[in-house]
Write a structure and sequence with these properties.
2 copies of one chain form a homodimer.
Chain A (H helix, E strand, L loop, with lengths): L11 H11 L4 E5 L5 E5 H17 L7 E5 L4 H12 L3 E4 L6 H11 L1 E6 L4 H7 L8 E4 L14 E3 H6 L15 E7 L7 E6 H12 L11 E4 L6 H4 L1 H8 L2 E4 L6 H10 L4 E4 L1 H14 L8 E4 L6 H11 L2 E7 L6 E4 L11 H8 L4 E2 L4 E5 L13 E7 L22 E9 L5 E6 L4 E3 L2 E3 L1 H9 L4 E11 L3 E10 L7 H7 L12 E5 L12 H8 L3
Parallel strand pairs in A: 1-11, 3-4, 3-5, 4-8, 5-6, 6-7, 10-11, 10-12, 12-13, 13-14, 24-25
Antiparallel strand pairs in A: 1-2, 8-9, 14-15, 15-16, 17-18, 18-19, 19-20, 21-22, 23-24
Chain lengths: 537, 537
């Protein structure tokens, strides 16, 4: 029997409509590329989004069309999120930090019809435009006074476009499974893969991340998304802030410590989210300037683990609580966040700190398991580790226009590529990537665990552990080290250093000493290159 | 274009499964009808719900069947919520406080197949059983040791039934629009009307009420639903607590002040929800005993407005914040809750208190408007009042097995029957019921406003205002008063008392003095009787 409640689909447009109606004068404050701060209320933002929706129609765009954005976090980008998705089109956020070839690939693969581009990125797009045959034109996100001379074909000015339109636009009522936005996940191998979010997944994710045990948003918060809107929708904050009536503070292109501190202080920001490197810049500026973080209460940190010293400094010197979270493009992005349970609140500080280092528990809507190489579920004892799989209504079911689905081999589950433990309270701890783990005789050995031990040796400057093929065990760990200047060490010394720290069968069989280890542009170990050089028997 | 996220329907069973997996040892603590406290974890509750699901099948029940409960708030009732809905059956919660004829009506109207009954209510059901031809049997919610001798036909013992079954049961994956539960709304006129909730509406409502600006639940809270599970699903708390991993504390039949204080204190309850009369009993007990409310932080009060003195006492003497909320059976029940916006946090106390007296703003998912008698929308100025209409995915679309839909005359909107103002921040204040308002010359006059003025007159003990028909204006207000002992007053005196307090056209035209005003069993003015006696020209 069917229930008899109203049939109201979950639509992204309803989020901004709600804020416009019930939080009309709550502000969106944006640092602009042009320089000044821009501020207006949700009612203004909604009116401008409706004008923009009229402009999209005038550009010849129709429901189902893909519209790309290459832009910082700012009010015009918020307007684009809602105008594009609200019209039944697909908002494709493009990460300008990708390699040029990747940007060209994803724009063409997504079949973007028009691109909306911040002033900053006009030069970048000018170098790519002739490789983008499907793009009909470019809208530069600025006003007439700042409109640059550009070689971009069909280049229009955002403000000129919007000002020509009427406020009136009625958002279509869309089937909630309609695609709303698109973000490409850049794996370390192969082409980027598109994750096509729906109105339903976006709204459900927005409810979930607003809960206390995730971001904890309310109409008393001022939210600063440092994490970019071109990277998994700024972790959903441009949707969750209107849902809860929170003030939204956008940093624009200014992500240095001084700019962020000023914005946090001046706008009374209470909540922020970003990666650890951003907070390093903020902390350096605070130390140099003697300034404070004003009303800031909480920062959610994801992407990589926050160093304990940063957590302590933020907490003890600035009264800011760090919350670890874990997610990925394919999970909209939120999977887990780390908040204590009731029974953990009064634990001794050392135990609480140890718990806080984990990536946390899932929010309702996300379900998880860890499996061994044969797909058998592993126990939740905080020790056993395996491939982490997730499922739920805001988890990617398959990639956009792609038949390559290694991550979706088990029906109903998405394989994250991460290796994790889960404890009895459902907290995960990421210990490695599946492709980096050494599969030895049916058991998995964490490369990261072995690397961390090697680094603790006084002679070792940097360490990597990779698999080498082994006739008997399948794979065995090989340790590759770069030494501190003037130091020397034997393989036997290093192997002995592992005794008592890991099971004997986990100790690397052999050691390669090199001058330097190869890195990616962002400073991560380039394990693919190490495997190429040292991965054979 | 369709998004490519996983197709995972929102199912009620997932709420308990989630808590069982990620909050396995978080407790449900229940005061039992038999006497002792019962405590177990969510994992235990889920295992018992699966056994019960097997028992339901053994009773011959099938998906779509309606199963009734007549029970207090307790762990067995929680098991029934999940076992019945999770199996694809419909959990019909029956309010034992209704008149006997109403109980018979709704059991037969809902076509309940089996009834699960707490010990308390066995005598009541024994008097009704012969009027319930569709009910195949009764399960008494107790163990074999407490099983009473009863005249109920086909009477089984809950624990005997459950203990005979296996833990293993796989919840079916249900279309999320499948009906999950049923609750009758008892209007003051006509037969009760059934509201048929769906899995989707229940899960969405659970996300929404868990948000900070509604109940604010987390894994650090201990939640005491005083509001009964037989009345709009205890405001959704038996669903929202597992969603957030909150401890659930159930008061059973003991709703007196001493019992509630002991439970709140002993179990470290942080959050509760109920009607004002319950808190009156608690406050009286606190004043007599000198005891405290322990860790209690917040109580949400709905049903009727909380007297300012109660708000002050709870806040100033016991450190407990009162949150006003508004809802109804047809809204699952939550429509609005009252929490300050950021700009209101630092208002002077008197202004904040005035704001806190309102019923609050909608949570995302609920949309509202107020309209005049002709259906025209009225301004949100905090003064204009009109019929309050709401819509959203957890608002009743139509009643169960009923063609009488006066509340659904405008497509897509539910008419609440309440008359309200809405201010510029979206806060509602309920000022009357539509049927009690006096419709005079196209304008609405609030009967409650006129009654409150009359009561302020020193000679008046109690007052009611009703409409009398008027050839020119349609309706005009008539004041009916009972006087204080020994007092006398003229109609002219009372009319003069209104001068300067309301617009002159709102002053009652005539006054009837009576010895006593008629009341309902629960002490409310019986306006239908007043209209019968004094409502003619």
């Amino acid at each position: 029997m069917r229930g008899l409640m109203m049939d109201v689909p979950l639509n992204v447009s309803a989020l901004l409509d709600f804020a416009a109606k019930y939080h009309a004068d709550t502000e969106i404050v944006s640092k602009t590329v042009e320089g000044p701060l821009h501020r207006y209320g949700y009612a203004d933002a909604a009116a401008r989004a409706r004008r923009l929706a009229n402009a999209l129609v005038r550009l010849g765009l129709a429901p189902g069309d893909v519209v790309g954005t290459v832009a910082w976090n700012g009010y015009r980008h918020v307007e684009l999120y809602y105008a594009i998705s609200g019209s039944g089109m697909i908002c494709h956020t493009i990460n300008p930090r990708l390699f040029a070839e990747q940007i060209v690939y994803i724009i063409n693969h997504a079949q973007d019809r028009w691109l909306f581009v911040d002033l900053t990125f006009v030069p970048l797009l000018e170098t790519l435009a002739d490789k983008l045959p499907g793009v009909k034109g470019f809208v530069v996100m600025t006003d007439a006074a700042h409109m640059p001379r550009t070689t971009l074909p069909n280049a229009l000015c955002y403000e000129t476009l919007v000002e020509a339109e009427r406020d009136a636009f009625v958002w279509p009522v869309l089937d909630e499974n309609t695609a709303s936005s698109l973000c490409y996940s850049s794996g370390t191998t192969g082409n980027p893969r598109g994750v096509l979010y729906s109105h339903r997944s976006t709204v459900l994710h927005s409810y979930a991340v607003s809960l206390i045990d995730v971001f904890g948003l309310s109409a008393r918060e001022a939210v600063l998304p440092v994490v970019p809107m071109f990277h998994v929708n700024a972790w959903g904050l441009p949707y969750a802030a209107p849902l809860t009536g929170a003030k939204l503070v956008m940093p624009g292109p200014n992500l240095d410590g001084a700019s962020l501190q000023a914005l946090i202080y001046d706008e009374g920001v209470t909540f922020s989210a970003g990666v650890p490197t951003v907070w390093m810049g903020v902390l350096n500026h605070l130390a140099q300037s003697g300034k404070s973080l004003g009303r800031l209460e909480r920062v959610v940190i994801g992407g990589s683990a926050c160093p304990p010293s940063m957590i302590e400094t933020l907490r003890d010197r600035y009264g800011v609580k760090v919350v670890h979270a874990w997610g990925m493009t394919e999970i909209s992005p939120l999977g887990t966040a780390n908040h204590p349970k009731r029974k953990q609140v009064d634990l001794p500080p050392a135990e609480r700190d140890a718990l806080a280092a984990r990536q946390g528990r899932p929010v309702f809507g996300v379900d998880m398991k860890i499996v061994d190489g044969a797909g058998n579920e592993l126990p939740w004892d905080g020790t056993a580790f395996g491939a982490l799989k997730v499922r739920g209504p805001w988890v990617c079911g398959r990639y956009f226009n792609s038949d390559v689905v290694p991550s979706h081999q088990e029906a109903g589950w998405f394989e994250t590529g991460d290796v994790a433990t889960i404890d009895a309270d459902g907290n995960i701890q990421i210990v490695d990537r599946v492709k980096d783990v050494i599969k030895s005789g049916g058991e998995w050995i964490s490369s990261i665990e072995l690397e961390n031990i090697a680094i603790a040796h006084p002679a070792v400057r940097e360490a990597a552990v990779i698999a080498r093929p082994d006739a008997k065990w399948g794979e065995r760990p090989r340790l590759i080290v770069a030494l501190e200047k003037g130091e020397a060490v034997t393989a036997a010394d290093l192997r002995a250093f592992y005794q008592g720290k890991v099971a004997s069968w986990c100790v690397p069989d052999d050691v390669v000493v090199v001058d330097d280890l190869p890195h990616t542009a962002t400073g991560k170990l380039l394990k693919s290159e190490l495997r190429r050089l040292y991965g054979s028997a």
